[in-house]
Amino acid sequence: MASSQPNTVVLDFALAVLDATGTDRAIAVASSGGTHRTLRLAAEHPDRVAGVVFVGPRTAFGEPPDHEVMLAMGSGDFDRFLEVFMAAAFTEPHSTKAIEDGVGWGQGTDLDMLVTALLADNIEEADRRDLCARITCPALVVQGTGDHLTPQSHGRMLAEAIGDNASLVIVEGGGHRTDVRDPVRFSLLLRDFAGRLQPAPRPPVRRWPRAAARNRRALMLSSPIGLGHAQRDLTIVRALRAKRPDLEVEWLAQDPVTRVLEAEGETVHPASRWLVSESAHFEGEAAEHDLHCFQAWRRINEIMVVNFMVLHDLLAEGRHSPVIGDEAWEADHHLHENPELKQAAFVWLTDFVGWLPMPDGGEREAALAADYNAEMIEHVARFPAVPDRAVFVGEPDDVVPDPFGPGLPGIREWTEAHYDFAGYVIGFDPAPLGPPEVMRAELG
Questions:
Q1: Domain at 8-197, CATH from 1.25.40.10, 3.55.40.20, 3.40.50.1820, 3.90.1150.10
Q2: Euclidean distance between CA atoms 67 and 64, whole angstroms
Q3: In what order do the strands lie in the sheet with 389-392?
Q4: CATH code for 215-433?
Q5: Using an 8 Å Cβ cutoff, are 346 and 338 in contact?
Q6: Residue pair 29/39 in contact by the 8 Å Cβ criterion
Q7: What are the CA-CA distances from residue 239 to residues 216, 233, 391 (Å)?
Q8: In this model, does residue 209 exceed pLDDT 90?
Q9: Residue 60: pLDDT above 90?
């Protein structure tokens, strides 16, 4: 039988965290089963909660969750339950990484502990409605239409129960955890919500240059994964300046690229200090001389979100166009995921397209690589205008002819259809080095 006693341990812990960090008031963000605890925190401690945000709230208002999930829980097979649960939580296409992470998180507990927590958190409907009525701070409810765990009615009825203080955002096609699968959009929603609670002070003087009075200013994004990008990007920028002497170029870049740029007298934009190091991530993934590039790439997703948000905020100033991204994967991916956020002309450069699985990765890696490739192909097909120009740095023969995956086009064929080819940009004149055969004989 479900317990009607509140789970006060979590509330005590939340208050202890606020005290330990010297935080008088905070915005509380809850997802799924955290709804009731957060309702109680906001209702019973209004002096400590400035606002509440609910993502895929589980309130038990309305219809029950997906019956497949309940059957899996009842089977007693915890691993099977986690797989079914996470598949129901992340119903959006190409959610393999989110499902994989969710299963990993779930394996930090067991079925008995999960059931105990659910029972401790369960409260009667009258108590739920009473808590909602006592919420005096602003509330934001974010609900996906494709949520198989907490149907759309849960979010709508929670917002209605809280009343005029609540606003509801429906994410069309979104699943249970839109904060995970649409992190850029959720970050903007959360920031807008927080900004309404405590607006930033306006500066006494604001400047807005008319379009005709603005300098030509490009923003160069140079990948820190290998200094070859820095050398070729410097070559590209020099060629641009030769054609457009009035062009100003600023760089959004990370160490060690920034050291190269500073030595060359280039202007590194101050916002670069907010970027999270991609080089450190790949160094952490490497073991001696071994790096599983594909898996390392899958695990860089959180860094990419942070770095895209830095770019987004910088472009919002309206001072840069075009943006030239040399393997700036965060820009390419998240602009295709959020095409309405494009704020400047965008030129995309790369010297590889698509993923191929390693033989020892087995069927699992083959399926994951094909899924990542399919997502990229769908992005370009749906929003071809996201890059104003897509340039492959190299020649068509440099692109492998293999297919992207079962039922997908050939990589070279697709790349030729969607990219211009620039030839090689190597950053120096190789003629003095002599023919390759001479160098091989000399160097071995």
A1: 3.40.50.1820
A2: 8
A3: 267-268, 248-252, 217-222, 323-326, 346-350, 389-392, 420-421
A4: 3.40.50
A5: no
A6: no
A7: 15, 10, 16
A8: no
A9: no
CA separation for the pair 173, 40 (Å, rounded): 30
Shared fold status for 8-197 and 215-433: yes
What stretch of H or E contains 251? strand 248-252
Q: Please say whether the beta carbons of 49 and 26 come within 8 A.
A: yes
- Does residue 341 contact residue 380 with C-beta atoms inside 8 Å? no
Band (pLDDT 50/70/90 cuts) for residue 385 is: very high
Instruction: Give exposure, 342-357, as e/b (b: 16+ Cβ within 10 Å).
Output: bbbebbbbbbebbbbb
* Residue 188, pLDDT above cutoff 50: yes
The residue type at 150:
T
Higher pLDDT residue, 269 or 431?
Answer: 269
Q: Which two tokens stand for residue 271?
A: 């916002």
CA distances from residue 290 to 227, 251, 334 in whole angstroms, order as listed: 19, 31, 29
* 188's tokens: 């903007």
Mean pLDDT, rounded, for 392-412: 96
pLDDT, one tens digit per residue, over 228-275 is 889 999 999 999 999 999 999 999 999 999 999 999 999 999 999 999
> Could you tell me if 272 and 254 are in contact, meaning their C-beta atoms sit under 8 angstroms apart?
yes
Q: Measured between alpha carbons, how far is 196 from 381 in angstroms, rounded to an integer?
A: 37
**Among 88-92, 359-363, 408-412, 439-443, the least confident range:** 439-443
Could you give the CA distance from residue 156 to residue 149 in angstroms, rounded to a whole number? 14
Rounded to whole angstroms, the Cα distance separating 50 from 38 reads 12
Place of tokens 């897509």: 390
Q: Are 341 and 312 in contact (CB under 8 A)?
A: yes
Rounded CA-CA distance 37/52 in Å is 11
Residue 377 buriedness (CB in 10 A; 0-12 / 13-18 / 19+): middle
- Residue 93 makes CB contacts below 8 A (sequence gap 6+) with 375, 378
Torsions phi, psi for 87 (to 5 deg): -65, -35
The residues pairing with 141 across neighbouring beta strands, listed in sequence order, are 54, 168
Contact 143, 154 (CB under 8 A): yes
State residue 7's pLDDT score.
60
What are the CA-CA distances from residue 7 to residues 15, 116, 135, 292, 295 (Å)? 14, 11, 18, 43, 38
Please say if the pLDDT value at position 3 is more than 50. no
